[in-house]
Amino acid sequence: ELTNETVQESHPDLVIWPEVAMPAILSNQPNLLNVLERRTDQWETSLLFGVLDEDFRRETEGGEGELYNSVVFLDYRSDERLGPVQDPVAVSKHLRGPLTEEPNRSRFLPSAYSEEHHYPPKIYDKSRLLPFGEYVPFKKLLPFIQDFVEKQGGGVFSAGREGKTIPTAFGDIGPLICFESTHPGLARESAENGANLLVAVTNDAWFGNTAAARQHALQSRFRAIETGRAVVRVANTGITALYLPDGTVAERLPTWQALSQTWVVPLYSHLTFQFRVGDFLGWLALGCLGFSLLLTRGIDTVEE
Description:
Blueprint: H1 2-10, E1 14-16, H2 30-43, E2 46-55, E3 66-74, H3 88-96, E4 122-125, H4 143-151, E5 166-168, E6 171-177, H5 184-192, E7 197-202, H6 211-227, E8 231-235, E9 240-243, E10 249-253, H7 273-277, H8 280-303
Helix pairs in contact: 5-6
């Protein structure tokens, strides 16, 4: 309802829904994607949304499906539509294309958007998973830990490919899902791969109304400053805001309310100093600190 009202009032180029915007595994609900594609046609607006998705393509080869925490982009300009189907494998192929031998490659993404070619939906799978929340480290060595994590509500997800961008008619989007916004390298890689805008989708319900929710949101502000890209942060519970490259909080929605709002978001392509040098300054500062500690220790030894 909120999206319908917003689209009718302001006709935006893009609607963004947060992480896991609906309680469903997308490919396991074949008609859901068909409904969403028809909605984008009605709205004449593209849609970017977070959702869980299982890749069923390998099941046709006797393998098991892989579960992902994903972001899907539906372009209303596309003439490739799924239509009514009941086969999860068909949905996975529509979302991800044919299987390739390249590891962790969800689907072929064109390097640039073309008005002359209408691409199928584009999907990004979270590449930096949260230990014990989304995957279990060393699960083959310690299988009992995985059983414990699953009983506590933790997920067993597969990781996608890092640095993927989503080409659109108005610019390339670099998606970040939840705690991926705390990884400077991911945002920098997306910008390096052509992203003009970073979109961070999250669900901070587990933080409640604590300082942790605000601290997590501030990570997106740092990513904007570092990469020279605006960051649109969209949360279903938590802080929804627009951060500009100079650190300005251009827009922010109040928390704990069901709201939607239309923002004018600038797109950038310039390279910042931090973008060029990466983590070099951090390592340099750490090296200088270590060197100064060694000097201090040497001076104390002489005095003794």
